[in-house]
């Protein structure tokens, strides 16, 4: 599965800790991330991560394009709900996930449910809906 990682500035450390905790599961999948988030996770876990631009330089648009082409199977975007400007990108990503039926977590509680579901095969339907070429 193709997993995207994104996090607002105040949530980056939480994303790193989450990825450390679930490194074993994440290592079995392809991961992409926006620049700073991906670099921090990569340094902490050693996971291979395809890095995109930072969100403010267009990384959110790169993720949006992959979603529009149905190339992502799971998006973990840890959001800072206290920052209305930052929430605009999360809302855009969320709409695209809804259009493509891509599971989307904006907080660690939902991300944990999704990652455990991924481990247990509960997201295997994505392979049927979106077979890899």
Annotated CATH architecture: 3-Layer(aba) Sandwich
Please state the overall shape, judged from the principal axes of the Cα atoms. Answer: globular
Ranges with pLDDT <50 over ≥5 residues?
none
Alpha carbon gap, first and last residue: 12 Å
Per the CATH scheme, the topology name is Rossmann fold
Tally the structural domains: 1
Question: How would you describe the overall organization of this protein?
Answer:
The chain has seven helices and five strands, in the order βααβαβαβαβαα. The protein has 133 residues and is of the alpha/beta class. The protein has a single domain, classed as Rossmann fold, CATH 3.40.50.1380. The chain has a five-stranded parallel beta sheet, sandwiched between helices. Helix 5 links the parallel strand 4 (74-78) and strand 5 (104-105).
Helix and strand arrangement:
Elements: E1 2-7, H1 12-21, H2 23-26, E2 30-33, H3 35-45, E3 49-51, H4 59-68, E4 74-78, H5 84-100, E5 104-105, H6 108-119, H7 125-129
Helix pairs in contact: 1-3, 4-5
What are the salient characteristics of this protein?
single chain, Rossmann fold, 5-stranded parallel sheet, 133 residues
In short:
The protein has 133 residues and is of the alpha/beta class. It has a single domain, classed as Rossmann fold (3-Layer(aba) Sandwich), CATH 3.40.50.1380.
């Amino acid at each position: 599965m193709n997993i995207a990682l994104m996090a607002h500035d105040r949530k980056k450390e939480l994303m790193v800790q989450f990825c450390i905790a679930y490194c074993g599961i994440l290592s079995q999948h392809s991961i992409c991330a926006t620049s700073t988030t991906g670099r921090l996770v990569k340094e902490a876990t050693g996971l291979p991560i395809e890095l995109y631009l930072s969100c403010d330089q267009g990384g959110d648009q790169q993720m949006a394009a992959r979603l529009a082409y149905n190339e992502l199977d799971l998006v973990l975007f840890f959001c800072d709900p206290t920052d209305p400007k930052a929430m605009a990108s999360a809302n855009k990503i969320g709409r695209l996930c809804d259009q493509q039926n891509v599971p989307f977590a904006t907080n660690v509680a939902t991300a944990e449910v999704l990652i455990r579901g991924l481990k247990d095969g509960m997201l295997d339907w994505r392979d049927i809906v979106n077979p890899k070429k």
